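Subject: design request, 249 residues
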């Protein structure tokens, strides 16, 4: 059975892409066929996996002249594939809105594409406007990465409000959890942000991902933490998240 996870937050710079590709590669390494779909117009999931962004999402949603599977790339990792996106994804959002496509338009369009996979991870754009809501509608579970800083925590409420609005419209998915990222126990701001999350959301808060230079190096080198430094603090942090995600599947 395919399980679909959206990594979403209306604020950028909270480690959505890092979380997406790290989780995806983890399950591929566990011999689970896994697909990443990059709905962010920046196309960073492809870049982080060492391949070039392409208009795969746009062509699948707006101009399916060729079979959708044609746009899936393997990224040279066993059992890990990606449907890449690029700047044209923003155009896809304009088209979906202009044509007044229903909230389940993306889920319907990509249903056959995701069926061969055990896990599908959706990297979303850091804003609403039509495409993020339709992407979340496709998901069984949502993970909200939140940088442990004031502005990021402040944006969390807007993302949760979006989820609630989707529930009211009939969305059957659920929030898997809030993922604190860039956690640094040395700084007061980071500690205060973590305390706030735990106080306000208690059991919805996932184990934090600590601030780590190695994660930036991974992105620059087109590698995941499992290839570069699996035994690092960052590797241990994400391993804890992988175990949680695995249990709900």
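Subject: RE: design request

Done. Sequence follows.
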């Amino acid at each position: 059975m395919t399980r679909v996870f959206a990594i979403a937050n209306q604020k950028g710079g909270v480690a959505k892409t890092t979380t997406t590709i790290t989780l995806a590669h983890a399950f591929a390494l566990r011999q689970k066929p896994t697909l990443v779909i990059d709905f962010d117009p920046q196309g960073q999931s492809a870049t982080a996996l060492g391949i070039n962004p392409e208009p795969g999402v746009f062509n699948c949603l707006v101009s399916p002249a060729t079979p959708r599977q044609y746009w899936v790339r393997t990224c040279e990792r066993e059992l890990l594939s990606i449907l890449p996106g690029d700047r044209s994804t923003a155009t896809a959002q304009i088209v979906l809105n202009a044509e007044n496509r229903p909230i389940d338009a993306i889920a319907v369009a990509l249903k056959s594409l995701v069926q061969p996979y055990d896990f599908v991870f959706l990297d979303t754009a850091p804003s609403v406007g039509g495409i993020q809501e339709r992407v979340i509608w496709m998901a069984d579970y949502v993970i909200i990465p939140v940088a442990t800083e004031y502005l990021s925590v402040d944006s969390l409420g807007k993302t949760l409000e979006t989820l609630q609005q989707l529930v009211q419209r009939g969305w059957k998915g659920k929030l898997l959890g809030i993922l604190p990222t860039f956690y640094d126990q040395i700084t007061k701001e980071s500690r205060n942000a973590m305390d706030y999350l735990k106080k306000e959301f208690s059991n919805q808060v996932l184990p934090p991902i600590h601030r780590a230079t190695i994660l930036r190096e991974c992105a620059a080198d087109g590698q995941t933490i499992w290839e570069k430094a699996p035994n690092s603090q960052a590797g241990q942090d994400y391993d804890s998240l992988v175990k949680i995600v695995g249990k709900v599947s």
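The chain is about 45% helix and 15% strand.
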